Every structure is written in C-alpha cells, then in structure tokens.
Amino acid sequence: MEVFFDSNVLLYHLADTKEEATELIGRVENGEIAGFINDIVVSEVVYGYIRAVTDLSPSKLKKKIVQIEMDFTLIEELFGLFEILPLRTGVGVIEFVTNYKLLPNDALIAATCKHYGIKKIATFDEDFERVDFLEMVKS
Q1: H runs (alpha helix) in the chain
Q2: Mean pLDDT of all residues in 51-67
Q3: Domain of 15?
Q4: CATH of the domain at 37
Q5: What is the rounded distance in angstroms from the CA atom of residue 139 to the CA atom of residue 123?
C-alpha cells in the first residue's frame, strides 16, 4: 500500500505524543506500507524538530540559529524510511489552493500525491478531507 505521510505524523512520532503516529511509522518500518514524503514535509519536520528541541519562538530561533548545534541523526534515520518525491507542481499549486481551500504547503502535498498517483495520505490534518482523490489513513 502506497501512503504519503504528512509532517504531523512524523512530528507526533518524534515527540511520542500520538500512539497512532508511531503505529503508522511502524507499518512503514515492517514493509506493510510504502511511505512517501516530499521536500515540504522534510522542511516542516526539520523546523518542528528544531523548535521542539530548542523551545524557542520563531523570532528567537531566527536570531539564535547561528549559535545552535543540533544532532539530526534521529530525523535523518526517520527520513530514511521514506521515498522523498520531488515537487513538480510550480504555479499549478494555485489550483489546489483554490479548488480544495488548502494552505500552500498542504496544497503542495496534495499536488505531489496527485502527480504521483498516490491515493492515501497518513495525516491528522482534517483539511485533507476536502481533497476528493485522497483517502486519509490514521492508523
């Protein structure tokens, strides 16, 4: 089964705050699910991880980022479970913002799924319920 993973699933797993997220990651680890992500998910997870580890607000993080030393081994290993799909949407993302009333990053995720023919998305974001060609997977 091919499933695109939204960043919230990876972040909940890393934070160990949602058992369903860890179960979904486990299904990728054991080969039951072929997991896919894109550069948007990578960016959101890296940013969320930095914010969680440093406990800094966005404005403070921007000022202190040059002083921060971090070990990203954990998220690099997590990303290694997934195939990272290149974004190929360009301004076509506007169609997904308009038609599905999604914010740009979510629209890029939906556009990636459409481009690659992925019909399932692991997410806890209810906005994806508006995307008629995606089936949400929560466990």
Answers
A1: 7-15, 19-29, 39-54, 58-64, 73-79, 93-100, 104-116
A2: 90
A3: 2-137
A4: 3.40.50.1010
A5: 9
